[in-house]
Fold this protein.
Amino acid sequence: MKFIQNIFDATRPAVTTGKLKPLYPLHNALETMMFVPNHNAHSGAHVRDAIDLKRTMVTVIFALVPALIFGIFNGGYQHYKAIGELANASGWAQFFTLDNFLFGAWKIVPMIAVTYMAGLGVEIYFAGRNRHPVNEGFLVSGLLIPMTMPIDMPLWMVAISTIFAVLIGKEVFGGTGMNLLNPALTARAFAFFAYPAYMSGDKVWINTTVEAGQSVVDGFSGATALGQYATTGTTSFGVWDAFLGLIPGSIGETSTILILLGGVYLIATGIGSWKIMAGSLLGAIVMGLLFNWAAPHMVTEAQQNFLSIPFYYHLVFGSWAFATVFMATDPVSAAHTERGKWIYGFLVGFLGILIRVFNPAYPEGMMLAILFMNVMAPLIDHYVVNANIQKRLKRAKA
Amino acid sequence: MSTEKPAKEALFSKKNRSLLTDPLNVNNPITVQVLGICSALAITVKLKPAIVMGLSVLVVTIMANLITSLMRNMIPNRIRIIVQLVVVAALVILVDQVLKAFVYDVSKQLSVFVGLIITNCIIMGRIEAFSLGNTPWKSVLDGFGNGAAYGGILIIVAFFRELLGNGTLMDYPVVEWMGLYDLGYKNNGMMLLPPMALIVVALIIWVQRAKTPSLIEKD
């Protein structure tokens, strides 16, 4: 470790006073990533928490890793399943194969690399321009963005979406900590509206490129579970499979159980707000039950079927779990007051399921629900704070 | 911008020139005063309607400013808004008829937005703020400056929206001609949606403020 420190020490003069000054943010970012920064308090008494922004972000990355690894395996698994060349084994031995992993990694690792390059490029440019250190906020966004994309997303689209999100979603508001919207979801929303053919429909969730001698199996459909529900009112995927994650979908969203594992880790370390997650769970359940009640009153049979599915189906199919655990809990764009977190979380789940079922264009709504609630979060906070002030004023008068 | 040679010093004195050039930059009706945004969203999907719209507004602002300036000493203060509306509405109807006669297809694309020039706050704003209190020649310059500035922003926004959203310019398939589709390039559907017009305008504002420090408010 000493020799790494030596490298940083040797290059420091060049970037602080020397010619390479514009590269200082990069130097600083790499150094604080490797070593705990030696920031000292200059005046008065300070209590410094050991967990700074960078440690916070790394904790979220750890929470994401299980779902990401699973997503990589699943990318290969769905591909080989579609062309009928799964490994000749049963159960998990069919899933955790080297082939599956390599195929998924071949698709997903470049996406992650492109996202980080594009996003950090913008961040470093602005850090150099405005003379502040590179913020760590993008560490998590850079991993979240590819995990919300379909596996076949062209890399240049990923790059453009990322640049748009960092620029319009974050830098124009003043960078990390100032953004109104969740940057990762901004990227996804941009990609979704800009290139709908690559972000929705039946063709994008499973890679079906075939080489000579291969062909897609008979009766193959690339639709996701929710896609099937929206068109036919039923699905061919089992709830248990969906809970484990053996279904097509965006890279990171399929495995509910591993996402929950990440969620438990986030709650245990105090990084993610359990109130938001619980609120979202409650909202989704309430909406699911309301749908069950409303189902007989629907006109078309497909809609009756879609509305009458048990509420817990909504929790395992689609992106409810991923969005709730990793997107809604973004500490910057969520509500900040404790009571506000309950309201915010509840409405995320409630609206997410509502949009999912009634959106005529696309059978998923968590992204739009969270972005909508991001915009509403300051309003919620405002009223929660005001209510508290009113309450205390009343008590003071009495 | 101020390249026109002053034919007579009185006509294009420095003050008069600034009437013409100020709206183009430091007092731009769209990017600084943030007026006329609604039509900037609606008709900038393609370049051709945007140009026609820009020209129409240019004609209406010049003529409306001129006419109200000529009448400025005769208009009773209490009913001035009604008089202004009558002037603008008459001009807009004229423009609408001309468009229908000569560029019918564009006129159909612009549909209701030609009629809505009447309510364009830039025009009413210039009449209220300028031509009611200034001589006809100055009012014409002011109207020209503001109309051109409005049209200019419209054309910039429409240029990016049509190029990136449709891959064409003036309906000419530029992107196909450059062969980008063969490389896997796809048009950006979001550019065709109204929010993107706002974002493009916002980016223009960003660039303009970065170039013109005098526009940046002090905290």
